[in-house]
Prior knowledge:
Layout: H1 3-48, H2 52-146, H3 171-185
Helix pairs in contact: 2-3
Subcellular location: Nucleus
InterPro entries: Sds3
Pfam families: Sds3
Amino acid sequence: MDDEDCERRRGECLDEMSDLEKQFLELKDKLFRERLNQVKVKLDEVLTGKAGEYREPLATLQHNMTLRTQVAGVYRELCLQVIQHRYECELQGARQHLESERTLLFDAMKTELLDKIRRLEEDRQSVDLTSEWWSDEVKGKKCKRRNLSRPERKKKAALVSGPFIVYMLRDIDILEDWAAIKKVHI
């Protein structure tokens, strides 16, 4: 092989290579256009809802969506029921607390009033005893003048339970005060 053969061979190879490159580019463009047409056709099928590989996953997604929507609805209803039950429980607790506080207040007021009544009764008995004692003392002074000739008799001491008050007032003043106290507390 001489230089001419090599050059000729080289030229043939370059021509063949350029032909192959042209064919390759043409095939590549043709394949691209066919792929593009196929994608456009698939896109049209998807948009119209006719594509098989699109409809099956879409149906699955729609089924899942309806299930999730139903579950969310049930969950929402349960949450609303829980909130309603909590509200009713708090309302019932508040009512019970109110009733308890009302009962405690009533009992405290009743005890206080009974205490006041007891004290007033004790004061009344004390006033009665004191007024009896006072009137006996006053009568005793008047009667002493009459009974100088008679021997003195000792009276039995009255049994008094609890403390009593000796007033240095007239009987009428004590009775007026006692009546005023009784009116105020009734």
